[in-house]
Amino acid sequence: MPTLLTNDNISQRELVMTSIEGAVVLVTGGRRGLGAALVDEVLARGARAVYSTARSAFDDPRPAVTTAVVEVGSQDSIDALAGIAGDVDIVINNAGVLLPAPLLTGEMADVVNTFDVNAFGPLRVVRSFAPILAANGGGAVVNVHSVLSWLGGSGAYGASKAAMWSITNSLRTELAGQNTHVLGVHAGFIDTEMVSDIGMPKTSPAVIAARILDGLEAGALEVLADDTTVAVKAMLAGPVENLTFASSH
């Protein structure tokens, strides 16, 4: 079964349980897929307001939802959002890009863009919103990684998610002093448009969203959101040659 990992000794941090009810939540990449499911789920759990972002303009008719065009590759774009979203309590970094070309033969521009969006993008968001979270009592940061963080064979995507895993673990230490709860999420394949061509078992976005928020509210430091991720995490102490991803189409 998926698991929630807690640890009370990260920088001597006491376990923080983050309440979604009454909170103001930012979800990057909230237009569709897992992001849209996260917006739905935080509203169902009583969030007071949600900022939902995408790279192009979109509408959400619900009064509690404010949509915004944000490019996570641009610090100016993120700072502009922070200028109007000073009430945010919870930041969920979900936006990402999948450019699966091989590292050796793919366009180098695609490799750089993948890291810029998947690794540096969430870091930019946290750097911009950390002072806001501190001013609002600490709050929480949720970073969505991938089971491919731990598996070779998925090109720049997996490498960028591995970098994000490390960034999350460092941010947890750096943000402990302001009482910000940092949750890292690892998930296998989610039934979204991004991975529709990959012939692997997939979990619905709604199920993954619920597991993420269960972990957040329980004070988890890491959520392993499906059985595949649990199995791969258990393999990290074994032979490195076993940590290879192979897809079927």
TrEMBL record:
The record's annotation in Gene3D superfamilies points to: NAD(P)-binding Rossmann-like Domain
Record-linked Pfam families? adh_short (PF00106)
Q: Which UniProt keywords apply?
A: Oxidoreductase
PROSITE patterns under this entry?
ADH_SHORT
Return the similarity comment: Belongs to the short-chain dehydrogenases/reductases (SDR) family.
Q: What is this protein called?
A: Short chain dehydrogenase/reductase
